Amino acid sequence: MTKFYSKTFNELTTAELYAILKLRVDVFVVEQNCPYEELDGLDCEPQTQHIIGYDDNDVVAYARCLAPKINYENSAAIGRVLVKKDARGKGLAHAIVSLAKDICISHWPEQGVEISAQCYLTEFYTELGFQVDGQEYLEDGIPHIHMKAVL
Fold first, then answer.
1. How far apart are CA 84 and CA 93, in angstroms?
2. Which residues are 58's β-sheet partners?
3. Helical ranges in the chain per DSSP H
4. Could you tell me whether strands 112-118 and 49-55 are parallel, antiparallel, or unpaired per DSSP bridges?
5. To 5 degrees, how large is the angle CA 102–CA 85–CA 2?
6. Is 50 within 8 Å of 6 (Cβ atoms)?
7. C-alpha angle with apex 9: 4 to 15, nearest 5 degrees?
8. Neighbours of 24 (CB within 10 A)
9. Residue 90 scores a pLDDT above 90
10. CA 33 – CA 12 distance, rounded (Å)
């Protein structure tokens, strides 16, 4: 059974931070063959919420919630959404995005929630209450689309 936790950067242990960063590099840099600057300085912003999914002591899912004015002027942002390769197909992506959306709404209730989604996941995010807001664009060589939560 996966358990989810939300923590600020200062609440993360060094072991948790290492596990999160390793998993993000494993998925976004190695698996997707996309060399980019993974450590962007936004993890340690005071209001950033790190959503971590654990199976026993193993980090199997992750998402990051950013406060308004960090990525988007008037909205919170969800990013770095991932599920560990051997934990996929169990509904964890749905669970962590839903939780991240709820956390954004509870922390910043007067703001919207936005996401820069990989295009192949547009239908997935639509099912979770997001709608396309703009045209397709390349981010780190991968097609993305801007989406906003319908609140």
1. 10
2. 55
3. 14-24, 92-107, 122-127
4. unpaired
5. 45
6. yes
7. 70
8. 18
9. yes
10. 28
Looking at residue 37, its pLDDT comes to 83
Q: Is the pLDDT of residue 116 over 90?
A: yes
Task: Annotate 117-144 with b (16+ C-beta within 10 A) or e (fewer).
Answer: bbeebbeebeebebeeeeeeeeeeeeeb
Name the token pair of 117: 């989604």
- Cα dist from 15 to 76, 97, 107, 150, whole Å: 27, 23, 26, 36
Report the chain's C-alpha Rg in angstroms: 14
Question: What are 35's two structure tokens?
Answer: 């060399």
Per DSSP, the three-state class of 31 is helix
| Residue for token pair 């995005």 | 97
Give the residue from 82, 65, 70 showing the smallest Cα distance to 9.
65
